[in-house]
Specification:
By secondary structure, the chain is an alpha+beta fold. The chain has four helices and eleven strands; from the N terminus they run E-E-E-E-H-E-E-E-H-E-E-E-H-E-H. The chain has helices at residues 82-92, 129-138, 251-268, 295-318; strands at residues 16-23, 28-45, 52-53, 66-73, 97-99, 102-104, 109-111, 163-170, 176-183, 240-245, 280-285. The strands form two sheets. Strands 1, 2, 3, 4, 7, 8, 9, 10 and 11 form a nine-stranded mixed β-sheet that branches. The protein is globular, with a radius of gyration of 18 Å.
């Protein structure tokens, strides 16, 4: 068995820090991933309803090679404002793509829809996400809260509250892989009407309850459970994530890593990648290990990325906590 890193968080990948900022009255928030030094990055979108900023520049044929950070935000399209706050914080730190005397922080961003979740969205003239983005970057460090925190504050799945999840693994060749995800899926992370996680085969050290898969599988295991069945707005979805490694990757290889990590969505959420989800994964290569990969090593990296992402999804739901005006129960409240 491949073991998690010392924190079992994406920050086990050297060169990354994470910060959260949230408003529990709003039931929404922002998570910032800060890359120091800048990291090679890519993105793969497989959901049918994405909301993004600065993702075109991540394609391998485009000029910018590294980025300063990534923002995951609630708030639907309003949450894209979080990138402006993150840019302001990074600029104050002297970070950014250098163009003459100016520095422009490069902060690709993705959002999820959490407007209909029981929170008070009457924020007045301007939404609060720019300030939350600034605060999230300021708080970035090696340790951070999961569950009902940051971009996962108001997240929901078909059956339970969603949340912010993270996990890591250390490969035998010395490479570290980490995942960070805000789980707000149209579908369910649990099997049928049970508390058992679809990601159970990949669980490491009972990190999300140690229940394994139900035996026998319930008759309704393959039933499609969605938020429409829970009388919630069908469009209130999207799982957004980051997969990261300290291996040295090109932008094209990072793109392949993001593609592989989407298998973790399919292993942990049923159904995933629907027309009503904006499912998206950013990939980061910090290169901190100094190790370049042979083809066989990359096969292992892709498998580890999928497994680690599946674990992070389950942990996001497992770590969620109850709050006032919740529309769905959290996983821990059901026995």
């Amino acid at each position: 068995m491949m073991l998690p890193g010392p924190r079992n968080l994406i920050t086990d990948v050297a060169g990354l820090s994470v910060g959260n900022a949230e408003d529990h009255r709003l039931k929404s928030g922002v998570t910032a991933i800060v890359c120091d030094p800048p990291a090679t990055a890519a993105v793969q979108v497989l959901g049918g309803a994405p909301g993004t900023r600065e993702t075109d520049l991540l394609e391998p044929h485009n000029t910018v090679q590294t980025i300063d950070g990534i923002i995951l935000s609630g708030g639907s399209a309003f949450g894209l404002d979080a990138a402006s706050g993150a840019q302001a914080a990074l600029r104050e730190m002297g970070r950014g793509f250098e163009i003459g005397p100016h520095r422009v922080p490069i902060v690709p961003t993705a959002i999820l829809f959490d407007l209909i979740n029981g929170g008070d969205k009457d924020w007045g003239q301007f939404p609060p996400y720019r300030e939350l983005g600034y605060e999230a970057v300021q708080r970035a460090g090696p340790d951070f809260a999961t569950g009902s925190a940051g971009a996962g504050t108001g997240a929901l799945t078909a059956t339970f509250k969603g949340g912010l999840g993270s996990a890591s693994v250390m490969l035998p060749n010395g490479i570290t892989v980490g995942a960070l995800v805000a789980v707000n899926a149209l579908g369910s992370a649990t099997v049928g009407d049970t508390r058992h996680f679809w990601a159970a085969p990949f669980e490491n050290q009972e990190e999300f309850g140690g229940l394994g898969l139900p035996h026998p599988l319930p008759a309704n295991a393959s039933d499609i459970r969605t938020k429409m069945g829970a009388n919630l707005q069908a469009a209130a979805n999207t799982t957004i994530a980051v997969i990261a490694t300290d291996a040295v990757l090109t932008k094209a290889e990072a793109k392949r890593l993001a593609i592989a990590a989407h298998d973790g969505f399919s292993r942990a959420i049923w159904p995933a990648h629907t027309p009503l989800d904006g499912d998206l994964i950013f990939a980061l290569s910090t290169g901190a290990s100094g190790k370049m990969l042979e083809l066989a090593d990359f096969l292992d990296l892709g498998a580890a990325a999928a497994a680690t992402m599946a674990r992070a999804i389950a942990r996001g739901v497992y770590d969620a906590t109850s709050a006032e005006n919740d529309l769905l129960p959290c996983w821990s409240s059901r026995r």
